[in-house]
Amino acid sequence: MPVTKVLTAGIGEVDLTDIGIYRSRGGYKQWERAVSELSPEAVMEACDKSGLRGRGGAGFPTGRKWSFLPKNGKPRYLVCNCDEAEPGTFKDHQLLEEAPHLVLEGMLLGAYGIGCTHAYIYIRGEFKRGFEIFQKAIADARAAGFIGKNLFGKGIDIDVTAHRGAGAYICGEETGLLNSLEGKRGEPRLKPPFPAIEGLYRMPTVVNNVETLAYLVPILEKGAEWFASVGTERSKGYKIVSVSGHVQKPGNYEVPVGTPVREIIEIAGGLRPGRKFMAVQPGGGSSACIFEEHLDLPYDYESIAKAGSMLGSGAFTVFDDSTDFVKAAFNMIRFYAHESCGQCTPCREGGSWLERVLHRFVEGKGLQSDLEMIRRVGTGVTGLNLCALGDSLEPFLISVLKRFPDQFEARVLREVTPA
Q1: Whether pLDDT at 232 is above 60
Q2: Which of 212, 199, 255, 256 lies closest to 47, judged by CA?
């Protein structure tokens, strides 16, 4: 099986929250080498040549994202997005709690690469333990001389601040995160201007995911060519996949991008005995399901998109024949309706309306006319909002409604004619 431990190496075997243990395994060597021997441009070039794409959901090439920063002399900021709240995703949570120094070293490399002197990490409100672990990691790294003024005697100043959110899914959207970080209401901003032009404190800003920044460490250690040699033509490197649902060994598995969907299920122990595969949601709660005919697809950005879904953040939820897809769809819609910031009418009203309609189906009181309206819902809520949360309402619901219409039809209220 193609499990390859890169970021996950040592997790569960040694205490990587201990800076001494982390350093004994080569920790912070790439940070010291970058400041002492490499220019910021060399770090940026390595990131670009590696083909590293954002691991937070959008999959945008990281090096290209950095290149959008204007050369206007303004201060720059790097923000690490650790507001992991996508249903089914739990990889950043594990890295934060069990490999905090790896995440921190990746942040420092990213900050140096873009010419930033103050980096921030925005941590989901529910990750209280992870926040405390990371605060200690920052303090230990500062005491060891890896954060602060005149680092390694090279005149480089970089500070790091950890900020804890208040438990809002919408703050995972980068502009909602920046608003929250500034002390404002966590609502997405109108774009343009994009964060690269006007982000945190209206300064040029890069927002990268935890896993994305952590990969900078092995990329600098082993070379951009090493990372680019793995994966597919357009989807390079490795990816942590959060496998959950109806498998025997749910968990985080690090695999080469392009590993077949079927193999990922087998890596997680396969289906439960006696059960039949029905569907998999390959990219978190906001992705459409793919089905049995897609089991041999490579798990990469392009192949999953071609199948009508998305790789997203790597949340991989498996459904067998015990699944009630009506209840599953209701639970998903209820989550997104609750997490809408309410700023955009299609998302706010569409989400709450869908929640009420699906609740009727769960109780066996759905209407036949509701099914036709649900099938048309995409045109009313998708692509009409400031962020992608409104777009997240439709994919899972429509995909299972098309595939398993009988489960929904069975919940339609039938009029009983009196005897």
Answers
A1: yes
A2: 212
